[in-house]
Amino acid sequence: MSEDQIIKEAVERFVRNLDVQRVGHDWFVGEPDRTEGRLFGGQVIGQAALAAGRTAPDPTLHSLHAYFLRPGRPDATIEYSVERVRDGKTFTARRVLVRQEGVPICDVTVSFVHPEDGISHQEPMPEAPDPDTLQDARIAFPNKDGTLWPLGPFEWRTAVEPGGVAAPGESTVVQEWGRVRLPLPDDPQLHAAAIVYISDAGSFAGIERRYGWEGMSGKASASLDHAIWIHRPVRWDGWLLMVTENPVAHAARALSYRQFYTRDGVHVASVAQEAVFRRERK
Fold this sequence. Notes:
Oligomer: single chain
Distance between the termini: 45 Å
Number of helices: 5
Number of domains: 1
Largest sheet: 12 strands, antiparallel
Helix content: 10-25%
Structural class: alpha+beta
Strand content: 25-35%
Strand order of the largest sheet: 1-2-4-5-6-3-9-12-11-10-8-7
Shape: globular
CATH architecture: Beta Barrel
Number of strands: 12
């Protein structure tokens, strides 16, 4: 199979895995990515955003808050029950309870907005290398045996090796450029849900830069809650810069902040997420 065909199938699979189907009144189901060994939280909240948006009079997403209650399973259909909390002139609120086989795994609140004129400002985008000066990370940072990572729907470019621990005096802030390898369908809800999905991917890169993963327990480390704000209507048609930092951690809980910028410096989204990280017990 050619590289172009692999990429085409990977992006099409991503779109299918992000979509949800209505099966009743305000009841939706989505299928997990069964090619993965675990259920990715970004897929759950991305699908929740789509399910909620399908019930909103103006589905312009501006914020989503989620509590991850239990680990999900990659072998069971995901169920989304949408509660219509409020339909206002400007803001619409939805609560989505996510279940698998009747067991709650995530509790999500989603808010939509009717855009209006008003105050508008932002701090400048941090200085970052242009993505055209960087290589695809799968080529720039291959596996230790020289093989390349599998081709997926996303391309990443960064000046710092992923997963590397910062040397003394080096910044622990992580900057990554990301894009979908092929255009997404012309659906604003899908573009917003794709941003929600990717907001949970690599969101604890600052932990990697500070501690590395050696000695961390994969079974005892997991996201607790996740919040994303979309400041401007966004289409993921090109490069987005993701700036990730981890300003505080204590009692095995770590907080990360993340900002998303378009290539021309527009701040389109912000993320805050807390997770538990435990050392392996000997």
